[in-house]
Write a structure and sequence with these properties.
By secondary structure, the chain is α/β, with parallel strands linked by helices. It contains eleven helices and ten strands. It has two domains: 275 residues, Rossmann fold; 63 residues, no CATH class.
Length: 346
């Protein structure tokens, strides 16, 4: 089924008669270098997951996220203004993270816009996905749950066990292999008392994904199911470059369970040279071609399964409520049902 972007007239905007159709908003806050790659990642993942569902995708960005001139021109030409979101009629929303700049998330320049998106999503969507930093910001704003700084960056491919009794993970493979790339963590012991339900856990005990039924079903990912095969490679190369230029103090850890043996050996040798002779020019010795040759998105089946289940959920909620009441009323009823379920469980 077609997936098309609102602002790209060269894309096929037709829909299939009689097919279920959902309208999703993507609030893309990724840094300049990853801006268009993130669009592509989510477009391709949703296309693979759509199956018999027609999907319309509209793209927005928080205006306060720092941008260089070329990225700002691109956003101005290709994205909807965030103000258009408030009057839109979306069924669901996906909000990405970005690189933190302030000591506290609440001090980030985009905090006000992001929290406004949160409040709007609860009242106006059937479900929304909050990715990485957006998940951390959402939990801080909604329930005061602070993230915890890890001793080093959690980066690589991690085996995660899905819960078998939730509709988003019932068809997911076990284990799910999920890319992670983050310095901070939300802990299960902090989440569960507030009514969050854990969907997937990494085998080292960490939380991968979780949900909370508010007026809209909020879905939180600490990992990145949308990543392409070489995304972690490009991030690792970027972090090495930052070390070589003196922009970070420590040499980055190699992503776990990601590179093959030959690439790992070459990268280990590069690390030894960099530790002895730290200079920016050494980034030219990074074995990009060798590393890319044997990379594969082994997490793709899990990603497609989870996103297909999410799209199916949104379609079911839309069919349940459409024609009888507004999205806001539907969100209110869903929230009342969830409150009653939590009260019964207590």
């Amino acid at each position: 089924m077609p997936v098309y972007w609102d602002l790209y007239p060269s894309r096929d905007g037709s829909v299939t008669p009689g097919a279920p159709c959902v309208h999703i908003g993507l609030v893309n806050n990724m840094p300049n270098g990853a801006l268009q790659a993130t669009e592509r990642q989510f477009f391709n993942l949703i296309s693979a997951a759509a199956d018999d569902i027609d999907v319309r995708l509209s793209i927005y960005a928080l205006p306060e996220v720092p941008r260089n001139e070329s990225s700002r021109r691109y956003i101005d030409a290709s994205y909807f203004d965030l103000e258009k979101l408030w009057e839109s009629h979306l069924d669901a929303l996906i909000v990405t993270g970005t690189e933190p700049l302030a000591a506290s998330l609440a001090q980030e320049p985009y905090w006000g816009s992001l929290t406004s998106v949160l409040e709007w999503a609860e009242q106006n969507t059937y479900s929304s996905i909050w990715s990485c930093l957006a998940a951390h910001a959402a939990d801080l704003y909604l329930d005061g749950i602070g993230r915890r700084r890890l001793s080093d960056k959690r980066c690589g491919i991690f085996d995660c066990e899905p819960t078998p009794d939730h509709e988003l993970t019932v068809d997911a493979p076990s284990p799910l292999r999920v890319p992670h790339s983050r310095w901070n963590d939300l802990c299960e012991s902090d989440l569960v008392p507030f009514g969050y339900r854990i969907l997937t856990r990494a085998r080292d005990g960490g939380v991968d994904s979780f949900v909370r039924q508010r007026k809209s079903l909020f879905v939180f990912f600490q990992g990145h199911l949308e990543y392409e095969a070489n995304t972690l490679l490009l991030e690792y190369r970027r972090d090495i470059g930052r070390y070589l230029r003196g922009e970070r103090d420590t040499y980055p850890l190699m992503p776990e369970s990601y590179f093959d043996r030959d690439t790992t050996d070459v990268l280990a040798a590069l690390r030894e040279r960099a530790m002895r002779d730290r200079r920016a020019e050494l980034i030219g010795e990074f074995p990009t071609a060798l590393a890319e040759k044997n990379l594969a998105p082994v997490w793709r089946p899990a990603a497609v399964s989870v996103y297909r289940s999410w799209l199916t959920y949104v379609c079911a909620q839309k069919e349940r409520f459409e024609g009888t009441q507004s999205r806001k009323e539907a969100a209110r009823e869903t929230g009342i049902i969830a409150d009653r379920c939590f009260a019964a469980a207590d």
